[in-house]
Write a structure and sequence with these properties.
Layout: E1 2-8, E2 14-20, E3 42-50, E4 65-71, E5 74-77, E6 83-86, E7 91-94, E8 103-106, E9 112-119
Parallel strand pairs: 1-7
Antiparallel strand pairs: 1-2, 3-9, 4-7, 4-9, 5-6, 5-8
């Protein structure tokens, strides 16, 4: 699985980093559950609807966590000036809890629907 991480460097400037997660391929006996523990203890998770045209302005992530875009198109701008566009199925992880943060914008004609989850202790989830 691939996702984009938004992180802050030591000077507080946010950046994008492409990340890949490899899942083990266990041999599953018939009837066994294919669920693999992610190792992430969540503190908050839920669905949000964000209106078309919304612009967050510069802000920090409320906590280390993932977002999965279920509907719509979202642009994110980081402190370096780089902008990335996420479409349905796009995944990003925001770890820029310090510094200037990033800007999020809904650029689709329809509202964006996002599933977000934050973690208890980000140091143990890396």
């Amino acid at each position: 699985m691939r996702y984009v991480e938004i992180y802050a460097d030591p000077e507080g400037v946010s950046h994008f980093r492409d990340t890949k997660v490899d899942f083990p391929s266990p041999e599953l006996p018939p009837g066994a559950s294919p669920i693999i523990d992610s190792g992430f203890a969540q503190t908050m998770a839920g669905f949000i609807s964000v209106p078309s045209g919304w612009d967050s302005g510069w802000h920090n992530s409320p906590g280390d966590g993932y977002a999965i875009l279920l509907h719509g198109v979202v642009e994110i701008e980081v402190g370096t000036g780089e902008v990335r566009r996420f479409t349905t199925g796009g995944i990003w992880r925001s770890t820029d809890v310090l510094g200037r943060g990033h800007i999020s914008r809904v650029v689709s004609d329809e509202d964006a629907v996002v599933y977000m989850a934050t973690f208890n202790d980000s140091e143990n989830n890396r």
